[in-house]
Amino acid sequence: KAGFNLRKVNRHIKFPEVIDLAPFCTAKCKNVAEGNTKVLYSLYGVVEHSGTMRSGHYTAYAKMRSMNNHLSDLVLQGQAPQVSETEPVKGQWFHISDTRVQAVSASKVLSSQAYLLFYERLL
Questions:
Q1: What's the pLDDT tens digit per position in 32-81?
Q2: Where along the chain do its domains lie?
Q3: What positions does the domain USP occupy (predicted)?
């Protein structure tokens, strides 16, 4: 009798706060200035699942972001600010579970058992 043994992977999968997708993009899709070789994305949301494949609970981590005046001015002028790969966009992280919202550290987010990751392109 053939059967399947389906089970959830519970080990932590490492993921970055800032990721460079340039190695996975064609030159056309990079849409970056001449000489710029990075296509950087910054993590802004994580969905985490706890429990088994048959039951469990979903929670989310979300980063509160606000554009400062200097960054807004650069974007409006069509200039891309310089962002280091090791410097994620600043912002407070929050853990959201049903009606509870709690401020958490970035290290707490990065150690979560992520089910879905949400990244946004850095300008």
A1: 555 567 888 999 999 999 888 888 899 999 998 765 545 445 544 555 55
A2: 18-64+91-121
A3: 1-122
Q: Which of 4, 23, 13 is nearest to 117 (CA)?
A: 13
Q: Kindly report the number of other CB atoms within 10 A of residue 99's CB atom.
A: 5
Q: What is the pTM of this model?
A: 0.72
C-alpha 41/C-alpha 16 separation (Å) is 10
**Cα(55)–Cα(81) distance, integer angstroms:** 44
Give the burial class of 109: count Cβ atoms within 10 A of its Cβ; 0-12 exposed, 13-18 middle, 19 or more buried. buried
SS3 of residue 64 by DSSP: strand
Task: For residue 60, list its beta bridge partners.
Answer: 47, 96
Q: Which amino acid is at 16?
A: P
The SS3 of residue 117 is: strand
Cα–Cα distances (Å) from 116 to 47, 64, 71, in that order, read 5, 18, 28
